Amino acid sequence: MQVLAKAPQGWPCLVLNADFQPLSYWPLSTWPWQEAVKNVFLERVAIVSNYEDVVHSPTFEMHVPSVVALRDYVALDRTPAFTRYNVWLRDGFKCAYCGAGGHGGSEPGTERLTFDHVIPRRAGGKTCWENIVAACSPCNLKKGGRNPREARMPLRRPPQRPSMYELQAQGRRFPPKFLHESWLDYLYWDVELER
């Protein structure tokens, strides 16, 4: 991951909760600069940090926000949405059977990942947190319509419903390709940063 001193292309704005924690780590909670400016004017956010760049209209000019904080706290203790992407994040973008990554690189990827029912639907398996895992295509094809015991493919760990805090912790393992230096005081990553 690279730390940029110059504003990244498109001036993305880091969005923090009212407690100055990011709303999410993966994907990192950012807005386009236009959304950030709109929410400043609607008084939904407070500007924490700015880029050096300025945007203006015929009657107004302002520095582009690089970090904003919501004025009202958004509770993160809610149950996370059951989505394919959140299943992949829960499983660390790795196959639950063989441990292969989504695309073999150091960054999370999904090119080779699929969505697998541990107990197949034909055997009464439900589409829920406790029965769905990330699986690479070869493992998914090999397992077919069998359960892991029948296919002799043990799970690395049983699937379970994650909390938002668990997904956040998992997201910190996958930093984006770049961060702006104004964001660093508000983020924590489990990797070394390149300057």
Structure, described:
It is a single chain. This protein has 195 residues and is α/β, with parallel strands linked by helices. The model has no long low-confidence stretch (mean pLDDT 89). It has helices at residues 33-41, 84-90, 137-143, 148-151, 164-171; strands spanning 2-4, 13-16, 30-31, 45-56, 61-70, 113-117, 132-136, 178-180. The longest helix is centred in the first third of the chain and has 9 residues, at 33-41. It folds into 2 domains: 2-77 and 173-186, no CATH class; 84-151, DNA Binding (I), subunit A. Residues 82-141 form the HNH nuclease domain.
The Cα radius of gyration reads 20 Å
The arrangement of helices and strands along the chain is: EEEHEEHEEHHHE
Query: Which structural class do you get from the secondary structure elements?
Result: alpha/beta
Shape: elongated
What is the total domain count? 2
Mean pLDDT: 89
Q: Roughly how much helix do the residues carry, as a percent range?
A: 10-25%
Please count the beta strands (DSSP E, at least 2 residues each).
8
Main beta sheet: 4 strands, mixed
Strand content: 15-25%
Weakly predicted, low-confidence segments:
none
Report strand order across the widest sheet.
3-2-5-4
| Count of helix runs | 5
- Termini separation comes to 9 Å
Organism: Maricaulis salignorans
GO molecular function, one term: endonuclease activity
InterPro entries: HNH (IPR002711), HNH_nuc (IPR003615), NA-targeting_endonuclease (IPR052892)
Keywords: Endonuclease, Hydrolase, Nuclease
